[in-house]
Amino acid sequence: MPGTRPARHGIIHRMSETATAQDEQPAEPLPAEERMRRRRADAYRQATRVLARTGLRASLRERLAGLREAAPEVYDLDEPSDLYGNGVVEALERRVAALLGTEAAAFFPTGTMAQQVALRCWAARTGSPTVALHALAHPEVHERDALREVAGLRTVRVTGEPRLPTAQEIRDFAEPFGTLMLELPLRDAGFVLPSWEELTELVEAARERDAVVHFDGARLWESTVRFGRSLPEIADLADSVYVSFYKSLDGIGGAALAGPRSLVEEARTWRHRYGGMVFQQFPTALAALIGLERELPRLPDYVRHARVVAAALREGFAGAGVPWARVHPEEPHTHQFQVWLPYDADVLLETAVRQAEETNTYLFTGFWGTKGPGLSMTEVTVAATGLEWTAEDVRAAVADFAGRLPKGARS
What we know:
The chain is an alpha/beta fold. It has helices at residues 4-24, 32-46, 60-74, 88-100, 111-126, 138-142, 146-149, 167-172, 196-208, 224-227, 231-235, 261-273, 282-294, 299-319, 345-359, 391-404; strands at 49-50, 104-108, 130-133, 154-157, 179-183, 212-217, 240-244, 255-259, 326-328, 336-341, 361-362, 369-372, 375-381. Strand 5 (179-183), helix 9 (196-208) and strand 6 (212-217) form a beta-alpha-beta unit.
């Protein structure tokens, strides 16, 4: 009809003007949290000196390139890809069982799933749904009550002290339980481990109560230095062990449950029921094999050098006149530990990022968490890049960091 085209043209013209006007409007400012996230990411990428550079903070391009470069060292890439847990996944399971000295191991997409399955299997075998654990254990703090809500288990807390339970606490505990779960190391208490003698006595105390023992060994790989024992010797103390492939081995994800063959076969059934029978998992399995090949042999070096770094941090803060600073444990049990400082978390985070932006040295790359009025804590990891730091390097970085803290920010 006459006039139709001009009318449509007018509508389109007005829409175009509106879109142009919208395009010209200034963008909404980013929330402060997102601005800090981007600053941290940029500072980390540009830093020439960090104590640990992990795949978690690498770009997709970097992760894919690393996988492509290293995968031929650990598996024949001309083999067929995996389907529902065969192929490279089975190869990974055999490798883990051999490293831990167990009869078998099963791959799981997550540690949460692996431990739920292990603990419900033990509950059925012992006839007790009660699991004794530490108040700071991962299932109690980070899994939204999954053991109770999903697995139908009941947990009882042996202790809340920032250490592993003692044998006497196990013997004196008032409630019966079928399984004792021990997180080795206990991350939220400062990546702490007992001594070997304390651990063996602790396990014996559980056996006296006819309980089975399960190790939450997400970071068990690096415990050999503290214990002075091999991985098979450590794993042999427990009835079952869970290990992670990304927390210390820098993998993409995934976990394994290791133990007696009959338990592992039962766990495979529950893995399927939980939705863990994933169609293909070759990137995760390959990354785990790479971690076992490359990172696992280096972990003892990381642990030993973490002790050097921790001592230098203490000396640095003392020399800078910080009135109350704590490195916990004073001599780290693993290659990870805590640093506590008497400042608000946002002050410490800003100072750490600003130091990295201005000096390319990123001393504290993690988040600072508020632990009380004017008191904050961060976790420190020492890995391959940390081996390049001398004690003097650490002390100099601490002095520079402390000098950037605003006056009057302490509690």
